[in-house]
Structures are given as structure tokens and as C-alpha cells.
Design brief:
Two copies of one chain form a homodimer. Chain A has three domains: 44 residues, Orthogonal Bundle (434 Repressor (Amino-terminal Domain)); 128 residues, Rossmann fold (3-Layer(aba) Sandwich), CATH 3.40.50.2300; 131 residues, Response regulator (Rossmann fold, 3-Layer(aba) Sandwich). In chain A, 46% of the residues lie in helices and 14% in strands. Chain A is built from 13 helices and twelve strands. In chain A, strand 6, helix 9 and strand 7 form a beta-alpha-beta unit. The structure holds a DNA duplex (16 and 16 nucleotides).
DNA sequence: TTGAAAGCGCTACCAG
DNA sequence: CTGGTAGCGCTTTCAA
């Protein structure tokens, strides 16, 4: 592949001049510009971004760390970052496959090796301290979907507790009195907080939720189906079901209807996240909107500011987001 | 950020030695290894991949070009590449946002600038010739979901025509005799070929499909809904509907049921692609499986071989894939 | 307006 | 087994 030297030689100018026209540098004669551009085209020359990154000390690269690409939630997150990337003429470097603290750390390190200017990291397994250390090492690192007080100005997160409360208020307002919950068995804070918020708000209204009406499962369609079967097997009745996420909720509806319960006339089902899926389900899923794409864009922009040192670093900055209720068809007034 | 020189200086050895222990080079004393490793850890040193790429002339980077991240079909494609990437200790560089030949070309060029070792490209807008030129310039470039005879050994593709035929055979075998089709209005070959195959096989069985029972729409849920409305508005009856893709098929089912038709008892609906969505729909969607993830992995491996020059370059290689019928609940025997 | 040259961080070759 | 050093392709002074 042709190098800048080849271009210089054939154009009969110095590499410095070639570099100047390539970077719209100042003080280049029109003649040189045209000359160089012609040779660039003839040789089909493409500058080497690695060499460029080495000397300029910036990679024009945005790193993203997510568990996987298949989950539409994470796809939306990546998409948010990608939008900013395109707008800023930068490239997306992706690290996935996160199952443990070790793999998360590995994914992040690979991005550091590549010297990404900014990194948007979705980490659930690494410790607060590990993440704080990382943030100190990498100026452009921003956490998404996680809150750590010591680096609050580097965290873009959703208030899951409040989300649970909003869910409870919605169902309460629809006159429901007997509730069930499906949570995730994954060991992260999110499901715990959503459930806590839900229970707290219920309790404020003088309603308790029986232990046997709280089930746990994998945060997938199948997980939702299995948890619902266990719920049904308890023999206890309920008219409203709050589910950890949309995929599980859709699985729950499936199982409910297979067992002769109509949604929402017999049982109202409320999901969480508002992924694309929720608009495809029948009945269309009522859920809480998690503005992940918007949050990803914000996180990316914060990272960009951080690296440009334009950041005010005002500790007052608050990147907390509140989920928004999206009422569709799966929740209804309890007669 | 610490460099290899810092490590060398503090460890009291040469940069050459540091490089050796970092790359498991041969002939390094245990003492040196331990010494260097300690300093690496103390300094929290991370090697610079850009510098490495510059000297070794390989980036350990896999490039992927897809239209977007949101469509689960493309997410699966990216996921296939990512799996190979992880396995080979390489990184994923992603380029999206393809809407025209220009943006496709731009996305590919960005990847070339980064000197990706292999590039898996999903291009629908660029001309055959442009792609052939690109393939000649980039040894590790492989096309996915497209077939160009001149570079057949660099193309991993699906036989859409055969897919249409398989669809027709399935519906015919279920005793259907009156058919409708929903195709995509996007100007690419895939929808055309699927429809052609469908019609060809029908004709072989002596069945014709009326022009008014072929509708076109955007390849989305809404597109499927709208196309179905138009179909219904024609007043013509049909018992089997073949739809361009799963999202449209789910939209079609939605509209069909809203208009009092039961799926599959009144009308059988058959999708295409077998994205995750199809397992979430009610009734579960019968569809044709497009093994995109598997194909992406194959494409990546071909690219890897191509760059390693291990490629046999045997013109006989055939990377054609045939979709596989997945019978679920949305198609049934016509009484 | 242009060219020469230093050097980004690293690997790999050659001596020792 | 180890160190010195050339050079990957590029940008960016500094002089001319």
C-alpha cells in the first residue's frame, strides 16, 4: 500500500508538503495542492491512521464496552455512541463478551491499548475501586448505567429505585390491589432497586406483596416464562404483574395466556426498558422507557469534553435519568 | 501514560528486553522477566497498539461494515464477527450509517485507514466494479450477503431465489391454493429474488398469484401493517401470505388479527430471516432461517486466511448458503 | 511557501 | 541472553 513517501516522491515535493495538503494545512500553494491531490488519487493512497495516531497522540476512536451485541438494549447503547462518532468523524471500537470482572477488565484494557480518546463503559462486575482507578488512568472514560459517588461527574445512570416507584404508582392508579413481581436472578443492583422501589411505594399505599408472589429468573423470554409458571404454581391470585424487563414480560404474557389468563383484562403486565420488542408484542407492552440511546450520546459527549479538557469539572453536574412510563395495551384498569 | 522506555529505564534493562518479555520472546532470563513484569505492574504500563501496528504492519483489528446496529439481523452479523475476533484476540472496528454508495464507500475507507487486517462488508449500494476494485486493494476484504462472480471466492451469500422456492413448497404442501405476498420496496436484489423464487415454484405447481395480491412496503413492522391493509383493501381473498422479512410478517399478523382474521386458522403467514423477534411473536412465527451469524463467522475466517495467505484460492470454493424452513405456529394446514 | 529532520512507541535485526 | 539501533508512516517544528 502506498505511503506518504511514495506520494511525495512522485509528486516531486517533500512529505511535509503532502502532509500539509492532506490536513488542510496553512500556506500551501494551489499548484502544490492540485499536484499532490492528483498523485494521491492516481496511487489510490490512503493515509495510515495508526501512524497518525502515534504522532498526534489521539486516535479519533471511541471505545464501547458492552456485554453483548445481541441484546437490543446494548445495541441501542452502542448506536448512541456511534451516532456521536459519525458526527465527530470518529470510529467505533467495540469490546464485548463480558461475563466476569476479569473479562470486563480485559475488554477495557484492549481499548486502552488502542488509546481510544473516549471510552463508554457498561460495567456491572468490576468493583467501584477498580473503576475509579481506571477513570483516573483514562481521562475520557465515562461509566454508563452505573453510579459511583467518587466519580459522579463521570457517571450517566438511571434511577432504578424511582423506576420501581413509578411502576407501582401506575398500577395502583389503575385500581390494582394484588401484585406479583418477576425479578432477575442476576447479581447486579438494577433488579434489586427496581423491586425495592416497587415495594416501597406499595407499602406507602398500605399494600404488601407476598413473598411467594416474587419470582426470579434469567432476564430473557424463557426466564420470564419459567418464572411465570412458578408464580402460577403457587396458586395465589394477582391482578398486576411487574416484570424486570421487556423480554421477561413478553415471556410472562405468553405463559399467562397459555394458562387461560387474558392480558390485560385478567392480569395487567408492566415491563421495563421499552426496547423495540415491546412495540411488537401482542398486546403491545406497557413499560418504562429507559432512554439508553440518549444517555449513551450524553456519555460520549461528556467523554469528549473530558479529553478536550473543556470540562468544567463542576461537581454539581448531575447525570441521573428518570424512566418514563409508556402506557400501551398490557396494563389496564382493574374492574 | 508510561511508555516502554520508562519501563526499560526503571527496570534497568533495554527496551529490547522489555519488548521481549511483553511478547513472550525467546531467550529471556527468568530474572529479567520477573523484574520487567514488576515494573510494568508498578507503572500500570499498557503497550500502545498503534505503535505496534505501525511496526508489525498488522493491526489485529477486524472491520465490519453494516447499515446499522439496531436491526437485529445486522447485530447478529456483527456478533458473528465479534466471536471470531475474541477467539483470535483481535478487536472489532465498526462502521455503520450506510444509506448510499457514498456513505458505504466512506465507511469502508475509514476501515482501510485503520489498516484492518480483515474487513467483513455488507454493501448493497456500491457497484460490482467498485467492490471488485476494493477487494483488489484490500486482501482481507470479504463480502457478505452479496454475490459477485468475479470475486466469488470472496463472497459469502444466501440463495434468496431458493429461499422463495422453499417458502412456496412449504405453503403448497400445506394445501394452500390462494396466495398473497408482501415484498420490500427497497431497491436491492433480495426482495426481488425471494419473490421470484416464490412465484416460479408456484407456477411450476400450476398456481398463479394475482398482481393485486402483491404489495410492497418498508421492511419494518409498520411497513408490514400498511402493506397488509392495502392487501385487505383489495377485497381479494387468500389463505397464505409470504412476507419479505420477520418484522413485516409480525406487522402483517397484527393487522390481520385486527381485521378479524385468525392466524394461522384463517390465514397462514410465513416470514423470512428468523430473527429473535420471530420467537417472541404470538403466534410464534414460521419463517426461513437465515444463518447470518454463522455466515459472518465464515466470512471472517475466510478473511483471516486470505491475509495469512493460507488461502488455497481455489476458485471452486462455494460460499452459498440455503435458508432452512423453521415451522412454528403461524403456518398451518389449509382445511 | 517549502524542505529537512526529529521523533511518536514499538519491534526486530544484528552484534556481542 | 542482552543491548543498540534502524525504521514503521506520519506530523510538526525550525530554517530556508
Amino acid at each position: 500500500m502506498a505511503t506518504i513517501k511514495d506520494v511525495a516522491r512522485i509528486a516531486g515535493v517533500s512529505v511535509a508538503s503532502v502532509s500539509r495538503v492532506l490536513n488542510n494545512g496553512p500556506k500551501v500553494s494551489k499548484k502544490t495542492i492540485e499536484n499532490v491531490l492528483k498523485v494521491v488519487k492516481d496511487l489510490n493512497y490512503t493515509p495510515n491512521a495508526n501512524a497518525r495516531a502515534l504522532v498526534t497522540q489521539k486516535s479519533t476512536t471511541l471505545g464501547v464496552v458492552i456485554p453483548d451485541l445481541i441484546d437490543p438494549f446494548f445495541a441501542s447503547l452502542a448506536n448512541g455512541v456511534e451516532q456521536v462518532a459519525r458526527q465527530k468523524n470518529m470510529q467505533l471500537l467495540l469490546s464485548t463478551g463480558l461475563v466476569s470482572a476479569e473479562t470486563e477488565m480485559r475488554a477495557i484494557n484492549l481499548l486502552i491499548e488502542r488509546r481510544c480518546d473516549v471510552m463508554v463503559v457498561h460495567s456491572k462486575k468490576l468493583s467501584d475501586q477498580a473503576l475509579i482507578d481506571l477513570a483516573n488512568k483514562v481521562p475520557g472514560l465515562v461509566l454508563i448505567d452505573r453510579y459511583i459517588e467518587e466519580i459522579a461527574q463521570r457517571c450517566v445512570w438511571l434511577d432504578n429505585l424511582e423506576g420501581g416507584k413509578i411502576a407501582a404508582r401506575h398500577l395502583l392508579a389503575l385500581n390494582h390491589q394484588s401484585f406479583a413481581c418477576i425479578s432477575s436472578k442476576h447479581q447486579i443492583d438494577d433488579p434489586l432497586l427496581r423491586l425495592q422501589g416497587f415495594q416501597q411505594e406499595l407499602k406507602s399505599a398500605g399494600v404488601d406483596i407476598e413473598e411467594s408472589l416474587i419470582e426470579y429468573g434469567e432476564p430473557t423470554l424463557q426466564g420470564g416464562e419459567m418464572a411465570t409458571q412458578k408464580l402460577l404454581a403457587s396458586g395465589k391470585r394477582f391482578s398486576a404483574l411487574f416484570v424486570y424487563n421487556d423480554a421477561m414480560a413478553i415471556g410472562a404474557i405468553s405463559t399467562l395466556e397459555d394458562n387461560g389468563f387474558k392480558v390485560p383484562s385478567d392480569i395487567s403486565v408492566l415491563g421495563f426498558d421499552d426496547v423495540l420488542l415491546s412495540r411488537y408484542s401482542r398486546p403491545k407492552l406497557s413499560t418504562l422507557n429507559y432512554p439508553i440511546e440518549e444517555m449513551a450520546m450524553q456519555a460520549t459527549n461528556i467523554g469528549l469534553e473530558l479529553t478536550a479538557k473543556q470540562a468544567d469539572m463542576n461537581k454539581n453536574s448531575n447525570y441521573k435519568h428518570i424512566p418514563r412510563l409508556v402506557k400501551r395495551e398490557s396494563t389496564n384498569y382493574k374492574l
